[in-house]
Write a structure and sequence with these properties.
By secondary structure, the protein is mostly helical. The chain has 45 helices and 7 strands. This is WASH complex subunit 4.
């Protein structure tokens, strides 16, 4: 069908308005933005996958893993192709058998060992029936294990048959038997899992079938199954049953036991393998010889059971190796003892051994263990040097750029370093596993030194794995090149041998087989280094090395190259297996000792990452546990146990030590402890805080954050208990930041008592206690507690009072004043008694007469000496047990009266403060609208009118209170003044004359209190006591004696007296300056300073008294005040109204 062409009429309108170009530019810009964003994302991923991963590393968390193991996609039949059909068949059979053996070995290690190694846990706290349920869950695993064992038996029989068939006709494959040795390790591993709960399970179910919900008719077949499993698996006879199988099968034409050629070749190969293995045991180049030794012992027992002959010389040689290898760890905590095995499995040979030799075998194990324990520190030291130097070489060679001209040398050195790393890992792993498992199996206690050494080795082991993993990208790149290089070296050696065979003109079938085998090895090496191809090379060369195709100097290098090829091709897997520390699950008891060691040697704190990495190796094994409903239970239990130990032995100790260090550092002035680092040593715990977070299960353990949180919590809680310690804990926070770099949170707690303070009601009820325990400060209007058992002193100020009034209402103010009035009545009674006392009254009358007679001579000033004499004279009348005179007690009485008046003043100030706070939102206090009238005008509801009425009432109260307040001082003067001034209390008129001695007494007391502030024992220290000035001013007002007191000109007399003495001291200083008598000059300086202090204290008292007098209208006398009241009453038209109302209110 022809394609129609589009006519010009249908073409797109070609008019270009520029929109296409704009749209293109927008799309291009969006694409550029996308590319930039994508590039930045890729850069982020690249940075995340950087080579230097750091200390926190976990294989399971790596976003990308490099799997270096090549995978073979061709089958064995496709790989084994030569023109020699017979050889093809033989190699194929043995390659298939060897592959099967390796698969079985892998399966037993990954599946059956990991599941069976835990078994059914014995727990005394377990609920009745739980162990039977666990065993029930385990039955399916035992069934699988039974099938697996049967499969192993079949493979062993097949392998023996194939070898017997081969050796009945030819002698082509002398080394093929080597593969079967590996297989017996599988049998040993399975043989070690003997569980003993089957019979208990059956009995429990039989006795109570209803509890387990199982019908009785189903129990019979189940019992048969269990008995079969018990007979096959749980009697510890798996290996015995394997070697005692019937290998002869005349029906298929296979005779094994009568095959002398096979028997001879079998024995020859055992001896050959043993010779190779024994020479490497205990050497630095040892890598898998112990496993092969176990295989050789297995082959020896198999040979004995098939052919019923014993090579006594070989038997003795096998037992002699026990001196070097007392035990072989098969997996986890499963230890295989070769001497026990050989004696039990070959009893015919054991009889030949004398009793002395048998006893020496038993003692040899203990001696070997003791020897190992003694050699541990030396091993640790040497391996520490080896591994650290190896790590440096590894880092050096990996970071170095490869040069094209030295590429081959560089690859060889890399190959050698990789192999060396695996060898070190194998050596360290062997020491740890063998030593720990020997201690456990022989039930011998480990010393702390041994535990520390073994833990050091575990760290070295994980450091090797870490180094490989950290450089995994470079290692992966190198492995591919190294395998190619090793393959080319092997191919060159095989090519030389091949030429030698071809150059020989003599033809024979055997020579043809050798040539075909060499060709097969070449073909296998010309490809990826998979395990199948390497197996083919091994099998082909076991044929190809016959007829002296290789010279001795060629064969050894070839074997070494192939061994390296095996190691490099499986590098990651080999490293993983050798560095796996899953066995530590069975040796968890060493962890507390290890943590104590880390804590004691904080400098090496970073090594703890390696130990936690080793502990994580236990997790994959636990995932295979079958006896529990889910493996999570086992994981949680393990996680909990490790964390509890970690908290107890490191974190909690660290927290307490840091707290102790901070406390002692802050309180160094108390000299609580000897902190001399030269005597008590020094431990720098700051290293723990530079550690990166440790990964364990689903959490990161951040030691720094943990300790910071602990200190934050402790400091906060302790500050809430004792707020006065806030400064101490603040200082400790700063010190924690400076010394340890701990960024701590501020507590944000108040640094003193809360605003509420003591409640007004409490003070009112206990006014007598309050005025004696608190000191008044006139200028700041604040009360300060005199003494306290705590480290802080309570204070009460206007805000506290205002808060209380807001809580209880303004009505409490009048009640408080009434309580104060009652208190003052009692105190004035005591005051009157003191003034009425004959000793006091007579002295005062005497002093008044003296002043009147001598005032012209003393310039109208009361002499200071007279007041001082009065103060001293009172002491002769007697003192209290605590050393106080009657004048001291009288001073305290006046101070308490003054404190009560100060409290009344504070109540009034607090009320004004409260009212002003409440009314601050009223715009104009002079012009407040009447809300009730406005509501009525609008005709609103009755409820609204009522609310408006209440609002008007509240506003009226607040306005009156805030505008004037109640003059409580005036009331308290008015209520007591008439009584004080009455004729019957004439003895009180002498009060003004006792004020000078009282001031002298007060100043001495005040200076003593202030000096105590600078002393360590601050009992009785105080810096203010204005209650005295307040009390004197109040009483003078009540007695209307301001003018009488002022006539004494007392404070002028005091000032003149001290100025005169100070001038005399200055003159004396000028005179003595020439004599240069230091002691005299010091005395004079002290005298001057003392006089200065006394003068200053008198001045302060004068100012306080002057201030206090202002509150009581000291400028007016009683007569003037009465006249003022009359004038006011006359102008208001209510004579006497004001006075009577104030009296009534108070009463």
């Amino acid at each position: 069908m022809a394609v129609e062409t589009i006519t010009p009429d249908w073409e797109f309108d070609r008019f270009d308005d520029g929109s296409t170009k704009i749209h293109t530019e927008v799309q291009l810009k969006n694409y550029v933005n996308f590319l930039e964003d994508y590039t930045s994302q890729l850069k982020g991923i690249e940075d995340a996958l950087d080579e230097s991963i750091g200390d926190v590393w976990d294989f399971t968390l790596d976003p990308i893993a490099l799997k270096l193991l090549p995978y073979e996609q061709s089958s064995l039949l496709e790989l084994i192709k030569t023109e020699n059909k017979v050889l093809n068949k033989v190699i194929t059979v043995y390659a298939a058998l060897c592959s099967e053996v390796k698969k079985l070995k892998y399966e037993v290690r990954t599946t059956f060992c990991n599941s069976g190694v835990f078994g059914v846990q014995k727990d005394t706290s377990m609920v009745e029936g739980e162990s039977q349920i666990q065993m029930g869950r385990f039955i399916s695993f035992l069934q699988e294990l039974s099938c697996f064992v049967s499969r192993c038996f079949e493979v062993v029989v097949n392998l023996v048959h194939q070898l017997a068939s081969l050796y009945s006709s030819s002698k082509n494959a002398t080394k093929i038997i080597e593969s079967s040795g590996v297989h017996f390790q599988v049998i040993f591993l399975v043989n070690h899992y003997a569980l003993c709960s089957i019979s208990r399970l059956l009995k429990s179910v039989h006795h109570n079938p209803s509890k387990f919900e199982i019908p009785e008719e189903k129990l019979k077949p189940f019992e048969k199954l269990l008995l079969k499993l018990e007979g096959q698996l749980l009697d510890g006879m798996i290996f015995q049953a394997c070697v005692e199988q019937r290998f002869d099968n005349p029906g298929e034409g296979v005779t094994v036991s009568k095959n002398s050629t096979f028997a001879e070749e079998f024995a020859h190969n055992i001896r050959t393998i043993f010779t190779n293995v024994e020479s490497k045991l205990g050497e630095p180049s040892e890598i898998d010889q112990r496993d092969k030794y176990a295989g050789v012992c297995g082959l020896f027992v198999l040979h004995f059971h098939i052919f019923r002959t014993v090579d006594k010389k070989l038997y003795k040689a096998l037992l002699d190796v026990c001196k070097k290898v007392p035990a072989v760890t098969l997996i986890a905590n499963i230890v295989w003892f070769p001497d026990t095995f050989l004696v039990n499995k070959v009893p015919a040979a054991a009889k030949v051994m004398d009793r002395k030799s048998m006893q020496s075998l038993r003692s040899m194990r203990e001696a070997s263990l003791q020897q190992r324990a003694q050699a541990l520190p030396k091993d640790v030291q040497s391996y520490y040097v080896f591994v650290t130097s190896w790590m440096m070489k590894m880092e050096s060679i990996m970071s170095k750029e490869q040069k094209s001209d030295k590429f081959s040398e560089d690859l060889s050195s890399r190959c050698n370093i990789f192999v060396q790393g695996i060898l070190y890992a194998y050596g360290i792993s062997t020491i740890i596993k063998t030593t720990m498992n020997l201690y456990m199996s022989m039930q011998k206690p480990m010393t702390k030194a041994s535990v520390k050494s073994l833990c050091r080795l575990v760290e070295l082991l994980k450091s090797i794995e870490h180094t490989f993993h950290r450089r995994s990208a470079v290692v992966a790149d190198s492995v591919a090149h190294i395998t190619h290089q090793l393959q080319s070296q092997a191919l060159a050696a095989i090519a030389t041998a091949k030429k030698r065979v071809i150059s020989d003109k003599k033809y024979s079938e055997q020579r043809l087989d050798v040539l075909s085998a060499l060709v097969l090895a070449e073909n296998a090496l010309n490809g990826p280094s998979t395990k199948e191809r390497r197996l083919m090379v091994s099998l082909a060369l076991s044929v190809g090395t016959q007829m002296k195709t290789f010279k001795d100097e060629e064969l050894l290098p070839l074997q070494l190259v192939l061994k390296k090829l095996d190691l490099i091709s499986e590098l990651r897997e080999r490293v993983k297996v050798q560095c796996d520390c899953g066995f530590l699950y069975w040796h968890r008891a060493v962890f507390p000792i290890y943590l104590d060691d880390v804590y004691d040697h904080a400098v090496d704190a970073a090594r703890i990452h390696y130990m936690f990495s080793a502990l994580r190796d236990c997790v994959p094994t636990m995932l295979h546990a079958k006896h529990l409903e889910t493996c999570d239970q086992l994981l949680e239990s393990y996680d909990k146990e490790i964390m509890e130990v970690f908290n107890e032995h490191l974190l909690d100790k660290l927290c307490k030590e840091i707290e102790k260090d901070l406390r002692l550092s802050v309180h160094t002035h108390l000299k609580l402890d000897d902190r001399n680092p030269f005597k008590v040593g020094m431990k720098d715990l700051a290293h723990f805080f530079s550690l990166k977070p440790i990964r364990f299960f689903n959490r990161f353990i951040d030691i720094k954050a943990y300790v910071t949180h602990y200190l934050d919590k402790t400091f906060y809680n302790l500050t809430t208990v004792a707020l006065h310690d806030w400064a101490t804990y603040s200082e400790m926070r700063s010190l924690a930041m400076q010394r340890y770099g701990l960024m701590m949170t501020e507590a944000h707690l108040p640094s003193q008592t809360l605003e509420q303070g003591l409640d007004v009601l409490e003070i009112m009820r206990n006014i007598h206690v309050f005025v004696s325990r608190y000191l008044y400060n006139l200028n700041n209007q604040i009360f300060i507690e005199r003494t306290s058992n705590n480290k802080h002193l309570n204070t009460i100020n206007i805000r506290h009072i205002a808060n209380s009034i807001r809580t209880h209402g303004t009505g409490i103010m009048n009640t408080t004043v009434n309580f104060t009035y009652q208190f003052l009545r009692k105190k004035f009674y005591i005051f009157s008694q003191f003034m009425y006392d004959e000793h006091i009254k007579s002295r005062l009358i005497k002093d008044i007469r003296f002043f009147r007679e001598t005032k012209d001579q003393t310039d109208q000033k009361y002499p200071f000496e007279r007041a001082e004499k009065f103060n001293r004279g009172i002491r002769k009348l007697g003192i209290t047990p605590d050393g106080q005179s009657y004048l001291d007690q009288f001073r305290q009485l006046i101070s308490q009266i003054g404190n009560a008046m100060g409290y009344v003043r504070m109540i009034r100030s607090g009320g004004l403060h409260c009212c002003s706070s409440a009314i601050r939102f009223v715009p104009d206090l002079e012009d407040i609208v009447n809300f009730e009238e406005l509501v009525k005008e609008e005709g609103l509801s009755e409820e609204t009118q009522k609310a408006a009425r209440v609002l008007d009432s509240v506003l009226s109260d607040l306005t009156s209170n805030s505008a004037e307040g109640t003059e409580y001082f005036k009331m308290l003067v008015g209520v007591f003044a008439p009584e004080f001034r009455s004729v019957k209390n004439m003895h009180l008129r002498n009060f003004y004359m006792i004020v000078p001695p009282l001031t002298v007494n007060f100043v001495e007391h005040s200076i003593g209190c202030k000096e105590k502030l600078n002393k360590k024992n601050k009992g009785g220290a105080a810096f203010t006591d204005d209650g005295f000035a307040m009390g004197v001013a109040y009483i003078l007002k009540l007695l209307d004696q301001y003018q009488e007191f002022d006539s004494l000109h007392w404070f002028q007399a005091v000032r003149e007296k001290y100025m005169k003495e100070m001038n005399a001291v200055v003159k004396e200083q000028n005179v003595q300056a020439t004599s240069q008598d230091e002691k005299l000059m010091q005395t004079m300086n002290l005298t001057q300073k003392r006089l200065d202090v006394y003068l200053q204290e008198f001045e302060l008292l004068y100012f306080s008294l002057s201030s206090a007098r202002i509150f009581f209208r000291a400028d007016k006398t009683a007569a003037e005040e009465n006249q003022e009241k009359k004038d006011k009453a006359t102008s208001n038209g209510t004579p006497g109204g004001s006075a009577s109302s104030s009296d009534t209110t108070t009463k």
